[in-house]
Each structure stands twice: as C-alpha cells, then as structure tokens.
Amino acid sequence: MAQLFYDDSCDLGVLKGKTIAVIGYGSQGHAQAQNMKDSGLKVIIGLKEGSKSIPQAKEDGFEVFTVADAAKNADIIQILAPDTIQADMYEKDIKPHLTAGKALVFSHGFNIHYDLIVPPKDVDVYMVAPKGPGHLVRRVYQQGGGVPCLIAIYQDATGDAHKRALAHAGGVGGGRAGILETSFREETETDLFGEQVVLCGGVANLIMAGFETLTEAGYDPEIAYFECLHEVKLITDLIYEGGLARMRFSISDTAEYGDYVSGPRVIDAGVKARMKEVLNDIQKDKGAAFAKRWIADTKAGYPEFHKLRDSNAKHPIEEVGKKLRGMMKWLAK
Description:
Strand content: 5-15%
Strand order of the largest sheet: 1-9-8-7-6-5-2-3-4
Radius of gyration: 22 Å
Oligomer: single chain
Order of helices and strands: EEHEHEHEHEHEHEHEHHHHHHHHH
Shape: globular
Largest sheet: 9 strands, mixed
Number of helices: 16
Structural class: alpha/beta
Number of strands: 9
Distance between the termini: 41 Å
C-alpha cells in the first residue's frame, strides 16, 4: 500500500528562505500559490507577457514576473501551465535558469514521464498533485482542511527532494488530509487511464449512449436527459461520500437489483478488454500511442481535437440539456 504522510511529517522549515515560483495562475496555480503563501512560504508568480491572469495575481498579493525572470529568481520552480505548452516554455524560459540545487516541480507527470522535458541531473525533480480541482483545493484550505495530495520523486540531486516534496505538499494543505507517495509513471498512467475510461470518456459516452437508446426507442428527449444525465450527480455524490456500498444502501431495492443484474450486461468482459487496450496505449513501455497521438495533434494545431470537440458539442443531449438547465434557476447559484 502507498505510504501516507500528514502534517507532522511536513517540515515547512525546509522551504523557509526559499523562493517558490508558480508558473501559471489558472485553476491549480492560483489555489496552490495562495495556500503556500498563507502557509508562510515565499511565492512569486511567473506568467507570459500580456497574460489575462496578471491583474488577478497582483490583486491576490503576489509579485508577478515573466516566466524567465520567475525561474531566474526562484529556488523552486513549479510548472502549472497546461501540459501542451510546458515543454516549449521549459526550453525557452526555464531551462536557461535551472542551475544546480534548484528544484523543478510538477502537478502531473505527463511531460517528464514521456520525456518531453528532460531536466539536468543536478536539480531535484518532484511532484505535488492535489487530488481535486483548484477551487476545491483553495476553499477547503480556507476552511481549515485540506485535499489529499500525491507526491513523487523523479530525481533527488540534493538529497532533500523528499523533504522538499513533503514540505511543499504540506504548504498546499495536503498534510491536513493525507499525502500519498507514488511515482511519476504511476501517477501519469493511472491519471490518463481514469480520465479516459471512467471519469470523462467512460461516463460521457455511457450517458450519450443511454440517451440515444431511449430517444431512438421513442421516449421524450427531456425524460431521457433526466434519467441518463441529470441524476448522475445524485449517484456520484453518494459514491463519493461512502463508496459503492453507500450508493447501493441509499437507492431503492429495485434500483439495486437492476444494478446487479444489468450493469454486468453493459460493462462486460468485452468492455474490460477494451479498457486494457486503452491502458496499453497509455503505458510508456507499450509504446505510448496516446501520448504520441496527442503530441502530434498539438504540434499540428489541434485539428483532431477541435474536430472531436465540435462533433460532441452538436450531440442532441447538449441542446436538450441547455433548455432544461435554463428552467433550473437554482443552477445559476
């Protein structure tokens, strides 16, 4: 089992006197930077010239630099820009200022694991990855709690990489909830797999297929929307709170029985076999077909990505949902 660490294992003194540059001020950037600042750590922000995030970062009390100047002035450089631009940003603005003894930090292992960024051997490379969206990471911290965090050590040049990672995760608030140690390979490959087969790709396509099945059988699209999409939140909230057992305890006996007898008919051995195919496409030692395909698309200007996005946006469930959600005034809150 993964080892768990809490605040009593996080010595923030390891980072006292160090300057942490958070590169990017989006969902994770604003949350992690503010949490670390409130934990007593010195944090600066690195942003591209003209970035729309500059006024907000300044309003939040940070010194804002260009990416290159932030990397030059920092001891710890945390890259929280989108995966697709990290490699170019690293080569142009960060690598020239990555001197011996500094640390390079990520919240997702994609660029390191697939060798898009290859750091020099004389710097620490570690990961701090809160397991929640940025707004939740910030809100829970302000309420006195924390979101569980992953840490991983890719390169320990100074001998202090593990201590730095724990302190960094503690500053973000992870030590209040629990910090799990993993590896860059495990975090990257399991994260991509979870997104593709369950959390995003799996759920979205299951919803759309259910909606299509009902509407093609002559049922009203509005009813199909409620049954196949709207009520998903009710079920996932129960699962989040207490696992599958809590969900099954809370639903009707009829629903629970249907879960047992019909679920395996849909998610059968064939689905699991195709999940293994997806995992093979993700794994680096199997050729990393997904990473190569995604990187090639980004370099070409995202033609496949935009085509797929546009196609899915035109699905009938989106038009029905837009109309129904417009009637749900509470959603505006």
